[in-house]
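Budget justification note: compute hours in this period were largely spent on complex prediction jobs such as the one shown. Inputs:
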Amino acid sequence: MKSKLFKIIGVLALLAVGYGAYMWFMPHQNVQGTKAFKTIDATALVNEFLTDKDKANNIYLDTEGESKVLIITGTIADISEDQLNQKVVLLKNTSDKMGVSCTFTVDTNAQVDKLNVGDAIKIKGVIRSGAEYDEDLDLTENVIVEKSALIE
Amino acid sequence: MKNLVLIVAIALISFTVFSQNKLSTTSGHIKFFSSTPAENIEANNYKVTSILKPTEGTLVFSVPMQSFEFEKALMQKHYNSKKFLDTKQFPKGKFKGTITNLSAIDFTTDGTYEATVSGTLTIHGVAKEITEKFNLTVKGGAVTGKTEFDITLADYGVVFTKGKPSENIAKTIKIIANLNYSK
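Corresponding output:
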C-alpha cells in the first residue's frame, strides 16, 4: 500500500517537474511554421483598422501576444533597417497615407537584398499593432508586422 | 576657401534640420528592465514611432506594446496577458509632451543638449503626468534622442499582491529609449 502511494507521489512529482520545465523552456511563437489566418492586401488591412480600430484589434490581436499570422500582399514603398539591423519593408500604395511595415529577422534579412521599391510582393509575418492616424498628435502609424519572410 | 565651403555646407545642413517642421522615426528602441532578488527581466522593442518638432518643442512617442520581446516565451505571454499589460485591450503606449527648456537647445549647432520634457504618459489605459530628462545630440544634421527613467507599475494600474509575479517583477522598472530622428 505504502509503495503504491510512493509510486503515485513519484509520478506526480515527475509530472510537476516536466510541466515546470516545459513552461520554463516554452518556445516562442513559430510564425513561419504557423498557418496564416488569411491573405490580405496591405490597403485593405490598413482600412480595417481605420474604419473600426476596436473591431480590428479584436480580430487580429491575441490576449497573450501571439497575434494573427498573416500573408500581406502589396507594393514596396520603402526599404530600411532598424536599430537591430533587421530589414524593414513598407508595403503601401502611392495613394495611401499609411501602409504595413514588415520587419524581417536575422534569418530572413537576406531575402530583402533582391527586392526593390515598386516590387509587388507577398510577406508572411505576425501582426503586432494596427494603423492609426492621430490628428491631435499629428501622428501617422503603419500596421506593424514582425518575424517576416518573403512568400515566393 | 575650402573651409568656407565646408562651414557654409554645415550651416545649411543645420538650418535644414532646424527648419524641419517635423522630425520622426518609426524604428525607435525602447528597453525595460526589472530587477528583483529572484530574477532580472529585460524586454526590447524596436518599433517605436516618435515625432519631434524642433520649432515647437513637441515630443510624441507611440509604442506598440506587443512588440516587446522577452528572452523567455512564458514571460512574454504573462506580460501581454490581462493580468499584466493587457495588450489586446491597450495595444499602444503613448507619450505626448513638450520640451520646457527649448531655448537651451540649439538644433543648428552640433552638440549634446539636456532637454527637460513634461507631458502625459499613457500605459495600460492609465494617463499620468511625468517630467523627465531627454538627451538630444545634434551631429552633422542628424538628431538623436536618449532617455532613461523609472516608472512605478502601480501608477499605471499594474499591481501584483501575491504569487510568483509579486516576487519576480519589480514594483519600479527602468525604461531606456534610443531614437534616431530623420526628416
